[in-house]
Amino acid sequence: MKENETSLMLRGMTRDGSARVTVLNSRAIVNQAIAYHQTAPTATAALGRLLTATSMIGVMLPEKNDTVTVSIAGDGEAGRLLCVGDYYGNVRGYIQNPLVDPPRKSSGKLDVGAAVGQGSLSLIRQIEGAELPQSGTVPLVSGEIAEDIASYFANSEQLPTICALGVLVDVDYTCLAAGGVLIQLLPFAAEETITLLERNVKELANLSDCFRRGMSNMEITELALKDIPFDPFDELEVEYRCTCSRERMHKTLLSLGEQQLCTLLAEQEAEGKARELEICCRFCNSRYVFKEKELL
Q1: Dihedral angle sign, alpha carbons of residues 187, 190, 195, 197
Q2: Which are the contacts of 72, defined by CB distance < 8 A and separation ≥ 6?
Q3: H-helix or E-strand containing 278?
Q4: Interior/surface letters 7-18, b for 16+ CB within 10 angstroms, e for the rest
Q5: CA torsion, points 84, 85, 86, 88, in degrees to nearest 10?
Q6: What is the DSSP annotation of 30-83?
Q7: Residue 71 to residues 30, 68, 145, 209, 232: CA-CA distances in angstroms?
Q8: What kind of architecture, by CATH, is found in domain 7-238?
Q9: How far apart are the first and last CA of the chain?
Q10: Distance CA 133, CA 124 (A)
Q11: Residue 179, SS3 per DSSP
Q12: Do the two domains 7-238 and 246-295 of this chain adopt the same fold?
């Protein structure tokens, strides 16, 4: 990853009010995920795609303190994938098996579907002030992530959606290019716009190559919305951002209760270790050690 490289997101809308569009160049986000999780190429592609999608979904949240969690539970070797995004498009995530790397497809592409397998995709929105989170779950269509995201919105929220995601891994296992396009139809969308979107979607079939060739977010938006007048209304800097802290981890341990903490400390002592507990953040692998007196 280039020094000071950032991930940029463009948001816009068709002038006839038929659809909203989000385009994200997520290479910096994916490279940060690689640095934290030391992922193999297929794991990088799977986690990178879900991080990209979650970031684009996050910026559609209504309030600044809201969050969205997108998780995939498949029966493939990748295990569980989980990503959390916020109102600003910042995102964090993890994959249960960061070393998953099945044989490539006959086309030479990474086989994310094989790594993920069959299962379900869940999306949970934590909305500030709401008594309960908003949630939905759908079966996986392919495990390739983009189709599964589109299926979720179509089936769980009745919101026709085009989702294209791409992650290109370099020979040194870093991310060479990554990004996504999310287009959602709004109520009373014009038939002409729908027809043009259906025609244009094939141009997004090799999205990672578009980013690899240096196409800007605006150029990719123009590709996705060819012959459809639109207006971009902002471009944001987003990043992989973990929110863990020593204070948060301390509260997590205290939530176990005194009896459970005493049991864990006794187990440490029985193994000849110091009476202290270590907790690791699954999103950034930061480790926090707490002495007995801090916990009791």
Answers
A1: negative
A2: 50, 80, 81, 82, 116, 119, 120, 121, 122, 140, 143, 145, 148
A3: strand 276-280
A4: bbbbbbbbeeeb
A5: 160
A6: HHHHHHHH---HHHHHHHHHHHHHHHHHHTT-SSTT-EEEEEEEESSTT-EEEE
A7: 17, 10, 11, 26, 30
A8: 3-Layer(bab) Sandwich (3.55)
A9: 43
A10: 6
A11: strand
A12: no
Give the domain ranges of the chain.
7-238, 246-295
CA 39 and chain centroid, separation: 15
For the record, the structure tokens of 185 come out as: 């139809």
DSSP 173: S
List the chain pLDDT tens, one digit each, 296 residues.
455 578 999 999 999 999 999 999 999 999 999 999 999 999 999 999 999 999 999 999 999 999 999 999 999 999 999 999 999 999 999 999 999 999 999 998 999 999 999 999 999 999 998 888 999 999 999 999 999 999 999 999 999 999 999 999 999 999 999 999 999 999 999 999 999 999 999 999 999 999 999 999 999 999 999 999 999 999 999 999 999 999 999 998 999 998 999 999 999 889 998 899 999 999 999 999 999 888 88
User: Strands 175-185 and 161-169: what pairing?
Assistant: antiparallel
Give CATH for domain 246-295: 3.90.1280.10
